[in-house]
Amino acid sequence: MGTHAYDIISHYMPNFPRRRAGRIVTDTTEFMSIDYGDVIQIGGKHYLVTKNLSERRFGLEDPKYWVKRCKELETGKHQIIKLEFYENFDITIGNIRSSCHRSPRKESRILDLIHGDMRFMQGRTVLDEKENHVRILDIIYGTELDIALDHIQGSHEEYFHTLFPDYFAKYIGAVKAIEYLHRNHEQHGDIRRDHLLIESGTENWRWIDFDYAFGLRSNPYALDLFGLGSILLLLVGQREITQQQFAEQKNAESITPDDMALAMPFRLANIQKRYPYIPDSLNNICMHFSAQNTVFYSSVREFVSALLTCFNELPVFTSARGRYPEV
User: Which Gene3D superfamilies does this chain map to (predicted)?
Assistant: First the structure.
């Protein structure tokens, strides 16, 4: 096998066009320069870069040039490779202010911690020749939670009484997964609707992307809690419910700033005002994430306890309880 990228690629992919072959990369520091046709040589394997990945932000595609989709040439397996990238920013939720930063080493620790736990993405970390932490991740084939919810047909009332009980049980399982991280003194760091995937075939709910960390001394897990709360509001409402959506409703004037979510003031937390059949106990949990609330859950463990109590006491969840005895 030769030392040029094409020589390596053609050994495994004889029909790959020579003009598209790039270079062999052993130092991934300059990730912006690594592109289609390059071969990342690391950990005794060769990974052909096929594209840069992106994620959705406010309806737009946001390129992530440090995240590459690759094909492991030795096996033909498609994988995701995350290269070292650092950024810092500040975040404010209500009166909570925190600095946040991206930490590849933190994600590497979590990948070791959750190895074999299919509630999370799976992967391993390999160091390149400059000791950059390169994370090699298995691809999860599935659908982001908000997209799955958006594809559900029918009224919200139909959704709430048929599909929601199963979704709520799966959500509790996902929250327990975050509790596991916290018990091991790790934050997820970037809990969002598009970081919780419903895997095709298994229907498992799986968390991805663990490289953000934030520095809150009083409660280092508070932002994870607010992220879980935002997903709960989405799940109960089936989609994001905004104050603007009430403009044509008769009870629009009854919506106040206190009914909105603390983390996202444009999103309704008092979902019972839109859908009166939402049980009080479930709506009360949602209201813990509203601007009105002054007493927040102190931990994910406390949040899980409230969710379990609601799930086990409400008649709407009767059928789901038989399918999810662990809940």
Answer: Phosphorylase Kinase, domain 1, Transferase(Phosphotransferase) domain 1
